[in-house]
Amino acid sequence: MRRSACASKKTGQTNSTNPISCSPSDLFRSASSKASSKEMERIDNLFYFYANRSSGMIDPEGIETLCSDMEVDHTDVRILMLAWKMKAEKQGYFTLEEWRRGLKALRADTVSKLKKALPELEKEVRRPSNFEDFYSYSFCYCLTEEKQKSIDIESICQLLDLVLGSQFRSQVDYFIEYLKIQSDYKVINLDQWMGFFRFCNEISFPDHSNYNPDLAWPLILDNFVEWMQAKQS
């Protein structure tokens, strides 16, 4: 038999007449624990509403349904940000553990609350202290095959536009143009992907006056700068 969280005061009376004493902190902890348990129950119920019964995960179809219910396009960058918040490992799939991690952090146990949390999530991601990690994550999230280390040019162009386009519009547009017309590279790896992010943050554009090819830049960026300079002249 479980003992009560609130201990009886020793007053010399029999147990049947002892008053139950509970401190305010005990009451708060008990109420907080119950609320947290109820919240997690609602988060779990929401997961199973969208999850595929066979796989036990929310799959691409479930994510599209969730997006439809939130009235958000499934290609919206905030869905990728949601995956980042969950630390989702497999593109297009959310496990129960990932779902719990993300929604608990966002304090969202209904579709309505999750939709309302998206603007704040975007602000969180776009903080300089978080964005580089999100940018790196977005590349790794798109590695869909085992031991895959690079992404094809067409997919990279779409990802660049989605993840970086709103912050570095000109750089992204020109780099995408270059990637589409060049023939030296069929795929992009993580080092090149991160190198372009550093390029956007450090190099003056469009004159590239502070770009030094002797520094440790990926070769593709040397070629991109040469292409830009030739284009401008």
Describe the structure.
Residues 1-22 are annotated as: Disordered. This is Defective in cullin neddylation protein. Pfam families: Cullin_binding. There is one protein chain. The chain is an all-alpha fold and 233 residues long. The protein is 61% helix and 3% strand. It is built from ten helices and two strands. The protein has helices at 24-50, 60-70, 77-86, 96-106, 111-126, 128-141, 153-164, 169-181, 190-202, 219-232, and strands spanning 150-152, 187-189. It has a two-stranded antiparallel ribbon with strand order 1-2. Helix 3 (77-86) crosses helix 4 (96-106) and helix 3 (77-86) crosses helix 5. It is elongated. It starts with 23 loop residues before the first helix and ends with a helix. Residues 1-17 have low confidence and may be disordered.
Amino-to-carboxy terminus distance: 85 Å
- The share of residues in helices is 55-70%
User: Average pLDDT value?
Assistant: 90
Main-sheet strand order equals 1-2
Structural class by sheet pairing and helices: mainly alpha
- Strands, total number: 2
Order of helices and strands: HHHHHHEHHEHH
User: Beta-strand level of the residues, as a percent range?
Assistant: under 5%
Largest sheet: 2 strands, antiparallel
Individual helix count = 10
Alpha carbon gyration radius: 26 Å
Overall geometry: elongated
Low-confidence stretches: 1-17
Topology, element by element:
Elements: H1 24-50, H2 60-70, H3 77-86, H4 96-106, H5 111-126, H6 128-141, E1 150-152, H7 153-164, H8 169-181, E2 187-189, H9 190-202, H10 219-232
Antiparallel strand pairs: 1-2
Helix pairs in contact: 1-4, 3-4, 3-5, 6-9, 7-8
Domain DCUN1: 38-229
Region (Disordered): 1-22
Biased composition (Polar residues): 10-22
